[in-house]
Write a structure and sequence with these properties.
With 366 residues, the chain is α+β, with helices and mostly antiparallel strands. The chain has 12 helices and 10 strands. The structure holds fe (ii) ion. The site of fe (ii) ion has 6 residues, from helix 8.
Length: 366
């Protein structure tokens, strides 16, 4: 399986990983054939691209940290909770019961992911963004939860702490439901006043969760602090270093990374490797440097399935990543420096001494 940017999709390609429409129904199911009518739809929805299966990538396995079914269930549950909490009947007993039920399902799903990741401690995240514009916040919340739990596993947190971390992470932006939608969805730059107003969402979310529902303290403190920065330049309290809770410091990194790799109506996404550079460059400044190191071990800057160019001019598809050498993946080479297809072969940038000077220099569209 490999990832193809939406603009490079061609009729007849076979879908490797299902895509969903606005209502979370299947748009393209795994194994189906791409028709030209779908390409426009995919671009319009905001998808960056599609995983496809073809001859050259049939031996490349893209492992997801959580399966599609759980991911879509989590997205839908968070969306339901937010919609109920934001509705005109949000204070009725009936709505509160619905939100309670949604939060119970969320807690259960977070618990399952924690169990799963604790059993697979070596898991690296190969995250290529597959969000669509409309439900950005909910897709983003699930990604932030997964990235946060993976980091938490990386630093050896207990099961209980991982649960609180995951819960805080998935609810981190819930306060946005109390901010005017027109401001949240404004496609252009916010005015200074609007920005100050949007910044209130972390306090709104914290207060709402604290006062209304049975949520562990550590989780809602994480919600409050997810925009605090290690160097004290964040909000709402300009807290710095250890005065920001560990959960807050973790969610902050996951939140920024996933936002950077996301396709937004007003800006193009960064490549995972570019977003990783941003996180690493801010270690000790905006972010806790020890946590950025863990992040770089657990999240692949060149995710499995992406098409890359090496500094020696050869091109290929990333086929494996290694926790101890995230910039030196295994690559299935398929094209020579002149652009001619060659007999595919796997190279190990990590171990092959003859390739020490070769680096992954770019990710190209096919
Ligand atoms: Fe936020």
């Amino acid at each position: 399986m490999r990832f193809i940017p939406a603009e490079s999709l061609v009729e007849g390609m076979i879908v490797g990983k299902s895509l969903y429409d606005k209502n979370h129904n299947l748009l393209l199911s795994e194994g189906s054939v791409v028709h030209s009518s779908y390409v426009e739809k995919i671009l319009k929805l905001g998808y960056q691209g599609v995983y496809i299966d073809d001859e050259v990538s049939k031996d490349i396995v893209v492992k997801d940290v959580i399966n599609d079914e759980i991911r879509m269930k989590m997205i839908q549950t968070v969306k339901d909770v937010c919609i109920y909490a934001n509705g005109s009947n949000s204070n009725t007993k009936e709505t509160k019961e619905k939100i309670d039920k949604g939060l119970d399902i969320t807690k259960k799903l977070i618990g399952n992911i924690v169990e799963e990741l604790l059993m697979n401690k070596d898991t690296m995240v190969n995250l290529i963004d597959l969000k669509f514009f409309d439900d950005y916040t909910y897709f983003h919340s699930v990604n932030v939860a997964v990235l946060s739990i993976v980091m938490g596993v990386g630093i050896g947190l207990s099961k209980e702490d991982l649960f609180n971390l995951g819960l805080g992470a998935i609810l981190h932006d819930m306060g946005k439901i109390f901010v005017d939608k027109d401001v949240i969805n404004k496609p252009s730059k916010l005015t200074p006043e609007e920005y100050e107003y949007v910044k209130k969402h972390s306090e709104f979310g914290y207060k709402y969760l604290k006062e209304t529902y049975q949520i562990p303290t550590a989780a809602y403190v994480g919600v409050l602090q997810h925009h605090e920065k290690y160097d004290g330049t964040g909000y709402p309290s300009n807290a710095s270093r250890d005065s920001i809770s560990l959960i807050g410091r973790i969610i902050c990194i996951a939140d920024v990374y996933d936002a950077l790799i996301s396709n937004r109506p007003y800006r193009a996404p960064l490549l995972p490797s570019e977003a990783m550079e941003y996180i690493m460059a801010n270690g000790g400044l905006m972010f806790d440097v020890n946590l950025t190191r863990v992040f770089a071990r657990k999240v692949a800057p060149f995710p499995v399935g992406t098409y890359v160019q090496l500094s020696n001019g050869y091109k290929g598809i990333v086929s494996e990543n290694y926790e101890d050498a995230c910039m030196r993946p295994q690559v299935k080479i398929i094209m020579d420096p002149e652009g001619k297809r060659i007999m595919p072969r796997f190279i190990e940038l990590k171990d092959d001494k003859s390739l020490r000077s070769v680096t992954v220099s770019a990710i190209n569209n096919i």
